[in-house]
Amino acid sequence: MENKANLYIYNIGQLVTPQGTTAQKGADAMRKLCIINDATVVIRDGIVAYVGATKDLDKSLVEGCKKLDAKGNTVLPGFVDSHTHLVFASYREDEFQWRLAGDSYMSIMERGGGIAKTMNSTRMASEDELLLPALGHLKAALAMGVTTLEAKSGYGMELETELRQLHVTHKLMELQPIRLYSTFMAAHDTPPEYKGRSTEYIKHIINDMLPRVKAENLAEACDIFTEKGVFDHSETRMLLTAAKQLGFKLKMHADEIVAFGGADLAAELGCLSADHLLMISDKGIDDLAKSNTVGTLLPCTAFSLKANYAPARKMIDRGCAVALASDLNPGSCFSSSIPLMIALATIYMGMTIEETITALTLNGAAALDRADSIGSIEVGKKGDLVVLNYPSYKFLSYHFGMNLVSSTVIGGVEYKNQVVQDL
To answer: Which pTM was predicted?
Structure first.
């Protein structure tokens, strides 16, 4: 569902955007925002044709455009949620309460919870049963200003269910406006039929799953959970090397539970991103800083698990490119709240609001290999942006936990958030 409309956005009190076509690395770059007061944006055929001061606008550019009055408020690039597990069946609300009561992960597993529960439900679900809840999550994301979202598979861990999840993602691309990025993640865990044989399972993914996914053009990237007790470095290297040879981009869940050297390996292998990073080592930080791999941090997951947050401040100060994403999933983080993410990043993770905006826009785009076309409001990029109902971007952190998006624009088409009332 590619939007290619003409739109004239005027009366913008403050236009705020990072700039460029690559991830911004380090504090100086991530804080460097282009801020234009009394601004105008013109989108033609879904692409930004003009962004700048209203006084410099060539009025011929707005001929035939629909008009959007920003009412003196702030306009930002559309938010990029670059890590979600969007397509799944059933929920784990009881398990969440058990965890709050102090139950351990192993005891929850013994009671039938954990990823195995979602896997069993997803294996039994039809495409429609997977599609309808995902549509609801996308509708909520749109209202919060998300214009691009990554959707991982990984709750099948066998061929047919993995393919079904990926097919649903592609159906969703046609049914709603958010741009979706499809990632294949059969290496989310070792399924019960391969218990104790994780390397054999990786070989099964390489020999039997990856070629089918590639042949049907169902995913752009391949992801793996590199963690102690899940998949080790040799297994990760084996899978991602094979995936790269087939033309997949690479992503990695890394250093979430223990310091396992995942970030170091992600940088070495040239992954688009290394995600989670709660336990990243100093060496991992330095290796990311020297690479083009984005460190994607998931503060809502740490919040949900009552875990320590990833060391965003240290990572940025030592030169890393940091992105923020939701990690929407039915287990460790059943939330895709952009307002909560911004609050956690600025209040608890030491990030400035400028760094947070860059992390949620241009750096999120880079984590999906999309920084050349989205993530900033610049001539030639896709016309994806959000209109707030406050006059300064600083309200995103100041009015914390609240959705301040009045309109989301994707490819020049406006989707007005009916929940947010005009002030």
So the answer is: 0.97
Distance CA 11, CA 294 (A): 35
What span, in angstroms and rounded, lies between the C-alpha atoms of 370 and 125? Answer: 32
Strand order in 294-297's β-sheet?
Answer: 79-81, 146-152, 179-187, 221-226, 249-254, 273-276, 294-297, 322-324
3-state secondary structure (DSSP) of residue 356: helix
Name the token pair of 372: 């050349």
Other CB atoms within 10 A of residue 283 CB? 13
SS3 280: coil
Which helix (H) or strand (E) segment is 143 a member of?
Answer: helix 127-143
d(CA 224, CA 191): 14
Q: Taking Cα atoms as reference points, which of 322, 250, 240, 260 lies closest to residue 289?
A: 322
pLDDT in tens, 98-148: 989 988 776 787 777 888 899 999 999 999 999 999 999 999 999 999 999
Write the pLDDT tens digit of every residue in 377-418: 999 999 999 999 999 999 999 999 999 999 999 999 999 986
Say if residue 61 is exposed, middle or buried (CB neighbours under 10 Å; 0-12, 13-18, 19+): middle
